[in-house]
Amino acid sequence: MKKFIIYCLLLVSVVPLAFDKGVFAPSAGESFVFMTLVVVAVVATTVGYITDHSFRTSMVEGVLRLRKHSIAIFLGVFTAIFGISTLFAFDRYGALWGNVDRNGGFAVLLFLFVFFFLTSLLFEKKEWYIFFKITLLVSLVVLIKEYAQVAAGIDRPYSLIGNPSFLAGYLLFTLFCSIVVFGDTRRLLWKLLSVLMFVGSIGGIVLSQTRGTMLGLGIGLFISFLFAAFRGKAMYVGRMQVRLLAIISLSLIGLFSIIYFSTRTSNFWQSIPGFSRATLVQNKDIATIKSREIVWKISLHSLSPSQEGIKKLLIGWGPENFVLAFSKHYDPGIYSYDPTIFDRSHNKLVDILVTTGILGLLAYGGLWVSFARSISRIKSFWPTAGALFFSIAYLIHLMFLFDAPVTWIAFYAVLSFMILFSDVKAPPPATARSVSNATMIGLVLFSGFLLFAFVDNFFPGYMGMRRYVSLVSGHTATDAVTKIDRIFKHHTYAEGNTINNFLDSAANGYNQHRNDVQLTLLNKAIDVGTAYLAWRPKDYRIGVQLADALNAKGDTQSLQESQADVRTLISWNPLYPGYHYLLALSLAYQKKYDAAIAEVSDLIHSGVHVTKDYYYYGTVLYLAGPTHYQEALDAFETAFNETPSLFSNNVQGNEHAYLAFLQFFYHTRNKDTINRIANRLIENNYSNSSSLQSLLQYINKNVWPVVEFN
């Protein structure tokens, strides 16, 4: 049984290969495979604990030893506070189960804790080095894919991880593995692979153009080489002393830094992937930097005891509830930099503070302090160098980002690996036997909960999401109408993402093909979205998509429901401009033109807007009638020039508007404006493009033939 459990845990190392294009977030495949392996390992552990006395005794002895290690203590405390915050969260369901995009709910954290717990008890040095070697092989596949994407012209490659930033974080773990394996193995093949992965991962991080990770990489390497310069006197790589190699590396890093920082604004650096983006960090006007600064201010403001009470300050808003704190304390100054409703602050410490409060942050900080103390106790050179590098580089990485499944797993694996170097003595066997029976019931209950979580939520949620994607991508609308109801029978962690996509695709389908089948599909999406929003009223994603779907349907009752839906969103976040643009659109569809224009005109002219808002504004002005056509056309053109897909997303509606513009401006003999209108229709494959081109030829010769507009 023990070997079977170890095999399950070793297979966790291949999780990065579980990239699933058949779901909304490809990384969801990684977390699903991870949870599958962990739940199998937990069930096997429970069975072994109950049936095998020697296994039970060894596990209890391991627990008694583990509970004295500071890493295990702080990780346990952090997990407990995470659970308490979940219990008192506003959106308890989201806090418990998380969602497909982030996988940050308490249940997922329990799976990670179990992975840490079991590997700490069952893995010895041999198993860890197998785990790290498999990671190097997996990373080789990941890097080959990344470099292939670069060769194919992808600006920021994401490989099999699905996101360039998460890829960069995973490659920090690959660097750790390459350092540890290189120092442990005597086989030339593994040493060569370690060197290849070390160099390749550095290149992979640079090519990902993730600036925070690049900063962590540089500082981590510098301090690790500095450590090697002091501690590497007796260590050799081939015939070269590690100290000498470290001094040479430090000299090269210093020389490179001097050259880079003195010439960073030159065209040379801006032409190199990764460095071009890093150079832009010097410019404080970059929207990304500005938006992050404002998000962090909003985050701190959301914990003000005078506004939110002492409870929020102590235990936070709850896991996956960051978006609620952000919305309630929204600062409209961020909108022009980034109109996103943030569900993360892009700083792990700030995320922990907002979601689990000061207590959670203290526990998480204690975990990192314990990590650092454990590094100082390591006697072996290469594990020390690897852990030192990873701790520094990964912590800096987290200052600008947040965790994903592959990086969570990597972090917990390194923490568990550090337990091997604990100097805690094992308890006497008698003590272990005396508590074995007392822990059995708790283990069975905990194992039962994880099994229930997987079978009742994660498994049906993931498979339902795959069935939905297969249905909408591989079947006709008629098939979708008859089969879609089977998808939405059970609340799961993937339900919100699935409904969000259903509302969006159904609305777009009806906008492009206004027939009975598409209307039936749209009605089903609206019904599902309405029921979901009644259950989780603060899920802003569904609120926005539901309003769009109701607007697309367009009848009087639907438009009134859309208006009420948007006003509900505004009541929670009155300062978010995007909701006001959406409300204006709903009012305009109801022919309340003055109210619609008044809702957003000040925002547009004050500069508080993004590209899509111009599209909304243009639609409102177009619906208001010919006296607003010139301003409507200008707004549309601004939107389509910056985001051409806005036209193709609603071809029928946009063609109708542009044909109305064409007729109006043709009678005013406005040649330049007619050219703008006609060219926009032609480039979007208007069915009568040939006639338009002939008309333009006449007009450009100042010949104005009589045209009958349909």
What would your notes on this structure say?
This protein is mainly α and 710 residues long. It is 74% helix and 1% strand. A two-stranded antiparallel sheet has the order 1-2. Helix 32 (671-683) packs antiparallel against helix 33. The protein is globular.
Whole-Å distance between the termini?
77 Å
Proportion of strand residues: under 5%
Strand element count: 2
Report the sheet with the most strands, covering strand number, pairing sense and barrel closure.
2 strands, antiparallel
Mean pLDDT across the residues is 89
Structural class: mainly alpha
Please mark out the parts with pLDDT under 50 across 5 or more consecutive residues, or reply none.
none
Helix content: over 70%
Task: Please give the count of helices.
Answer: 33
How is the largest sheet built, in terms of strand order? 1-2
Helix-strand blueprint:
Elements: H1 2-10, H2 28-51, H3 53-66, H4 70-87, H5 92-97, H6 106-122, H7 125-151, H8 164-184, H9 188-208, H10 211-231, E1 236-237, E2 240-241, H11 242-263, H12 267-270, H13 275-279, H14 287-301, H15 305-315, H16 322-328, H17 348-377, H18 381-398, H19 405-419, H20 429-474, H21 477-483, H22 495-512, H23 516-535, H24 540-553, H25 556-572, H26 577-589, H27 593-606, H28 611-624, H29 629-642, H30 645-648, H31 651-667, H32 671-683, H33 689-699
Antiparallel strand pairs: 1-2
